[in-house]
Amino acid sequence: MGGHSCPMKSATGGVLSDRQWADAVLLPHRPFATNNLQRGQYRMSRDDALAMRYVEHSPHALLGSIVIDCDHVDAAMRAFEQPSDHPAPNWVAQSPSGRAHIGWWLGPNHVCRTDSARLTPLRYAHRIETGLKISVGGDFAYGGQLTKNPIHPDWETIYGPATPYTLRQLATIHTPRQMPRRPDRAVGLGRNVTMFDATRRWAYPQWWQHRNGTGRDWDHLVLQHCHAVNTEFTTPLPFTEVRATAQSISKWIWRNFTEEQYRARQAHLGQKGGKATTLAKQEAVRNNARKYDEHTMREAII
């Protein structure tokens, strides 16, 4: 078991433990894990994974914890020092240099990362993750899939509250109101959000052209587009997440879209676009008229 020091008690007095982390916090049935990040990661049993230095804390479909990579020698101080802008993390697994992975456990409040019909929680989780990174000075390039295994003896682990958080409880003054959606700027959970948004916008009109084909061909087409979006990320998502996202989007559209619904949607978008264009043109005419009046007045004065 990993070395522990200075446990931080919650308001209820409970402190997370090795056993609780292994039994409740670690979600995947067969997590990816490794002892050396440079040599790749491999899926294995939970018992074998818990003996590794790095382990996948959440499966590709669910976000069970928000983990921040704090590449500072005073990572534990940044995580637990009070007063702070963020609630105390559930655990901090730090290397001998002091650099650490800081984790906040969501428990039953986990967030689905592959449900195209419920993007709002994922967007909010992305904003929460970003706010926590800002609060502790976290590494924005960290992908978040593998974390330092808190119960491995190579890490010095400090446990915090034993109770999970809701996303709302993790909001800080640093939580942004909006996030950039450009693929080349997306990191962490932002990659999932960006892939959803980019692929959904592309897939809606594409469905009309492929509606008479097979569902299997449609699934493959959407997967290809998700893969193309993924290649634009600085740190691409694992293929399992790309595939799960593609399946969620393709199946939802294939199941829910009909020709009548599609025509109604296009008519609605066209109506909105027409109104916007009309208003824009009206404003342009007003501006041009105003400029003409001002020019005419200046000439009259001269």
Please give a structural write-up.
This protein is α+β, with helices and mostly antiparallel strands. The chain folds into two domains: 3-170, no CATH class; 183-256, Endonuclease III, domain 1. The chain has eight helices and eleven strands. The protein has helices at 18-25, 46-49, 75-80, 119-136, 190-210, 215-230, 239-256, 259-301; strands spanning 3-4, 32-34, 42-43, 54-56, 62-63, 65-70, 91-94, 100-105, 111-112, 146-148, 156-159. The strands form three sheets. A five-stranded mixed β-sheet has the order 1-11-7-8-6. β7 (91-94) and β8 form a beta hairpin. α4 packs antiparallel against α5 and α5 (190-210) runs antiparallel to α6 (215-230). The longest helix has 43 residues, at 259-301. It is elongated and about 60 Å long.
Terminal residue distance: 89 Å
Largest sheet: 5 strands, mixed
Net shape: elongated
Number of strands: 11
Q: What would you call the structural class?
A: alpha+beta
Oligomer state equals single chain
Low-confidence stretches: 289-302
Structurally, the number of domains stands at 2
Give the number of helices. Answer: 8
Order of helices and strands: EHEEHEEEHEEEHEEHHHH
In spatial order, strands of the major sheet run 1-11-7-8-6
Beta content: 5-15%
InterPro entries: Plasmid_replicase_bac (IPR004322), PriCT_1 (IPR014820)
Keywords: Plasmid
Protein name: Replication protein RepA
Domain Primase C-terminal: 190-254
